[in-house]
Structure formats: structure tokens, C-alpha cells
Amino acid sequence: MKDKMTPLERAKAIAKGERADRLPCNPNVANGVARIYGCKISEFNSSARTIAAAQIASYRRFGYDGVRIFTDLFAWAEAMGAKVYFPEDNTADLAAPALDDIAKSDSLVPADPYKDGRLSVHIEAMKYLVDELGTEVPCAGGMVGPFTNAFFLLGIKKMSKLFFTNPEVVHRACQVSLETCLRYAQAIIDAGLTPTISEPMSSCTVVGPKHFREFAEPYLKKLVQYITAQGKPVTMHICGKTEKIWEDIVAMGVAGFSVDNVVDLQKCKEQIGDRVKILGHVDPSAVMYAGSPADVREAVFKCVQQAWDAPKGYVIMSGCSLPVETPLGNIEAMMEAAREIGYPIDPEKLNKMLSSC
């Protein structure tokens, strides 16, 4: 099956309540785009053209509804002094936090997105991306939120202890991270793209709602408000369990909320779907990576059945970034399932499709 509309045409039609060819669908291929383009992931670290070209190649292959420049969680902390490990052909990982001594927290300064670390490479890649695809598909610049970045400045294990022993240092790290995030968000906007936020360490699987509200929410809210004040809608992803902070997320003013596959999608729709667009949440590991195309098809049908009628809209999406080696046939199966369902949704047709799986 082939799409009859571009992603931007589709989004505009659905927003107006008009007929479209299908629901928006975004498998979140992430660094798996290297497999499609035929390069090594390590090439992303120094070549803006390669990052953009890989994203463009993947979009052309599958036709999904959003492209994003984002390589790993650590580029912002690295630009502020953290050490990052770069495998030759896999996603980067944190090697050491920016601070080896908490007493040096006053030495933390915001990063300059045009000069520090790999941030300038990403910004240059955004310009190539929007020049090529900006008239047909939403283009985004991804970034981590200030709370998550603070973990990589102070150290993941150490920061959790500092909640109790030295909260002032945690606030200091979050504040300087926020300043970096604000600068980077502005650079994304200036490049003609829309910022998206990943905040994995805000998950209730990692920290309780009390500490989220004390240390994460104030800074994350300022970032969201800054972006929306520039006329850009914010989509946010938080991994793991998030039910206990759904109302907090909505109150920040995000336009879209991407949920992990461990979340009850229907409950999410029922509780907050009248105030925020819901994105999710096909299992990226058990289904997209380890499952068959038939498994993917069934999972897409189930997600759509649970959330298609969310008042603020619904986007078919994987629950998180796909593993690098996700079979390309499974990505295609997700897109084909979305095309098969069509739009507007016919609940009776959808039920028959699901029962046939």
C-alpha cells in the first residue's frame, strides 16, 4: 500500500477533522537509520551530512510521520564536561559524569550549542534535514530535559543520594542544565525545526513523584513554557511508568505525550487524552525487535483500538526508540498496519481485523 498524502498534509487534514489516508505513524527508528543508509553509527559523531542523510534515507524508505535529529542522551552533558564512550557501530554511552567532586559544582557552566561538543554537528544536520524534507514532513530536533542531563553531570548513582544529602547541588545541576537546554531549544527553532524533549530519568520507575516534583518539574516546566512561547508545540517522551505524574505533565502545557509500552494506553487516553495528544506504544523490544511482522500488525491494531478516539489526537508509535538491529520488515509492518486501518477509523472494521490476527 502507498500513502496518498504527505505527513504534513495528513496532519493538517486530521487537525481540521477532514478525511485522511491513515493515522500518523512513527516507528522511532533512531540510530537504526544507519543500517538503512549504510553507514556506521560512529560517523554521526562528526558528520552532520551523514546524520541528516541517514534520517532522510530512512524516511524515504518507510514514509513515517516525523523525522528527528537525535543520536543519544549524552551530547548535552558531554558539551558540559562529561565523558562519553563511542562504540564504532552502536549508540554512545556515558563513561564518566562531568563532576568527579561535588564540591566543584560551581564550575558547571551552560554549553554553547554552536561551539561545545557535538551539539554544533547536530544543529548543522538539522539545517540539511529541513532543507530536504521540511515541506513534506514535520522535522524535529531532539534533546534531553534538564533533570535527565543533571544525572549525567553529577553521576547517576550519586545524584539519587544527593536528593537527601545535598539537594542544593541537585538544583544547581538542574538549573545549569536548563540554561543549556534553553540555548539548544532556541538553536533548534532558529534552524527551522521543532524541539522535542526526552526525559527518561523523570520516570516513576527511576524516581518517585515527590522527587520529580521537587527537582525535575520546575525546570522541565520552564523549558516547555519557553518553547511554547516561541510558537512551537512540545512533544515529550518519558520512559517507564508515568501514571502518577500524568497530571503534572499535562499542566506543563505539552502538546503531545509519548508513553512507554509498560503504560496502560487506554487509561492514559481516558485520563489525559482530552488535554494532550497521545503517542504510543508498540513494544520496541519484544514486538518490534524480537517479534514477527504478524506480531507487529496485531500490536498496532490493539494500540489503535485503545487510543484512536483520544480527543486531542493519537499517533501510532513505538514505546521508545527502536533497537538498532530491529528488522526492517517489522518497521514496514508497522507502517502497513497503519495504512490498512485507514482514517477515519471504522471501529467495526478494526475489530474484525484484530480478531483475524
**The CATH top-level class label:** Alpha Beta
Structural class by helix and strand composition: alpha/beta
Q: Going across the major beta sheet, what is the strand order?
A: 1-10-9-8-7-6-5-2
Count of helical segments?
Answer: 15
Q: Approximately what portion of the residues adopt beta-strand conformation? A: 5-15%
Sheet with the most strands, sense and barrel status: 8 strands, parallel
Assembly category: single chain
| Count of all domains | 1
Order of helices and strands: HEHHEHEEHEHHHEHEHEHEHHEHH
Mean pLDDT: 97
If classified by CATH, what would the architecture be?
Alpha-Beta Barrel
Question: Which consecutive residue ranges, at least 5 long each, have pLDDT under 50?
Answer: none
CATH topology: TIM Barrel
Question: Distance between the terminal alpha carbons, to the nearest Å?
Answer: 19 Å
Strands, count: 10
User: In percent, how helical is the residue content?
Assistant: 40-55%
From the alpha-carbon coordinates, what is the Rg to the nearest angstrom?
20 Å
